[in-house]
Amino acid sequence: MFFLLILLFLFGYSDVFAADPIIRLYGLSDYAATGSAYDPDCPNEAVEVHVYHDRSEPGVRCLAAYSCPWGSDVCFKPNGRQNTGFWCLYRHPVNSSAVPSSIEVAAINKCGSGSNVWANKSLAKEVKVFHNRELNNIFVDKPFYKIGISKRFGAAIVEFYNKRIDPTVNLVQPDPGSAFQAAVFGNRDFPVGQPPDCVGTSDLRYNPTQAGSHCAHPNGSTIISCKTEDGSDCLKLTSYSGKQLRFTVHFKNFYYPLSQSNSYPYQSYDDVWGEIVYTFDDYFVRIYYKLWKTSDKTYGVSFQQLPIAFLTQLTRFTYKNNGVIITDDALYNSSRSYDINDSSDGRWVTISSSSSYGATPASLNNFVTLAFYNKPYKGICPPRRFQMDYLPNDGGVQYATAIQNQVDFQLEKNYYVEFQAYIFPYMHNEILPNANRNLDYMVNTYESRGGLMPDWECNMSASVLSDLNNDGKVDIFDYNILVSDFGKTGVAGFTKSDINKDGKVDIFDYNILISNFGK
Question: What residue ranges in 294-365 does DSSP mark as E strands?
């Protein structure tokens, strides 16, 4: 991309004339440039738009290929074609002082003999700063990674750098509505593909309850408190070198009413709360999530329980399905998924850079590995699935998502939803230095056996769960433990003898153990 920038200067940008592409800006902010562009020499083809910050680093590439909602004074409609709009998202949220002075936007000549064209920033209709990076993030800088956690957008991760590969490239897709987060989604059954106009019609930001509003919405999620491990107030910090940060978040955001006859206006809710705890190891980040409701009110929608990661520069997925390591070099607008059924399925996915479909990532060898876990909800382990999407043009840049558990459910009062995630600057087959075991083994091994997987993790095989004393076999010692606990009750999984995690040790747990006896 940097080489391309040099070429742009060599060949120059010119004033607009018939053979040049034409570009108009609607908005410039600290994370996106929006507008419309087309090339008169080939008006039916999408024009590439490049965005640079200070012209000192590789730019981001996007396409003017989306519906344009900003009216005739911005939007071009050559030959009646509607899809000339673009949303170009930067490599990281820039500092507020950089808007708009340091942002440069160019339309790239598509065909014919024309030249590339710089956009006229003075004609932008809207210039805003949504997320002051300098003040609104807490940065934790460890030897092998650096992470930025937002103090505005629901304590979501908005920046992550694998310092082992390239300490300058943020791997988290930077739109504040698209981050690494605990997602509290509304119902998914709506048409998508419309532009992001802050009324819920965007395929990219179709539910900004994920981390907080991407637009200036008054009901955005609020961080009630943030405490360090010694109890200090971390909302006053912009950097931190300790071990733990604990956030309490009030998700008083919005959802979409189940209606396809209007423009899906936001409806506020204010009774969903969350606790998000970040623990920082030199070799990984662990994030614990707990969500709960404080009222009996129902909204007519369902929620999804999952951590989700929107990533940029990374589009190659490696994962473990039925005991087999699989690598998918994702294709345009494609999706990969696999069900998590038992111990033969990995709780991790490694996402690395790729040049598939001609996309040129800023650093070709970059990667990150994610691991997700779920605690049983109301005593039941829900169906689980990793879904990995390659969405190179939605919102502008080559990026991908990795989500876990697409099961919809109604969040209910008095029931906690708990899950956990890890972020590693290591590949799945690399040795974690502090464990002397590879990441795959550590992620899929219980904490009580020396791994990283919480003992309450769902969907492990019955034989593993029946090994109550963790000695690698199901025998008379496990039987004796269950018999001594028989009849006890508590919260789901309160004891290992509650094998089916229904909150009691009874004949069903006994039958599971007996069926696995001797394994």
Answer: 303-312, 316-321, 324-329, 334-339, 348-352
Closest C-alpha among 121, 255, 247 to residue 184: 255
CATH of domain 133-449: 2.70.98
Mean pLDDT score of the chain: 74
pLDDT band at 92; cut points 50, 70, 90: low
CATH of 462-515, one of 1.10.260.40, 1.10.1330.10, 3.40.50.1010, 1.10.287.380: 1.10.1330.10
Structure tokens at 187: 């119902």
Q: Which amino acid is at 442?
A: M
- CA–CA separation, 215 and 192 (whole Å): 18
Helix (H) or strand (E) holding 9: helix 2-11
β-bridge partners, 390: 334, 400
SS3 assignment, position 231? coil
C-alpha torsion sign, points 457, 461, 466, 471: negative
CA atoms within 13 A on the CB side of 69: 13
Supply the pTM of this predicted model: 0.69
* 135 CA to centre of own chain: 22
Estimate to the nearest angstrom the gap between the alpha carbon of 298 and the chain centroid.
Answer: 26
In angstroms, rounded to a whole number, what is the distance separating the alpha carbons of residues 251 and 153? 10
Which tokens is 467 given?
A: 């090994």
Contact, 414 vs 273, CB < 8 A?
no
Q: Is 519 exposed, middle or buried (0-12, 13-18, 19+ CB in 10 A)?
A: middle
Query: What residue type is assigned to position 431 of the chain?
Result: I
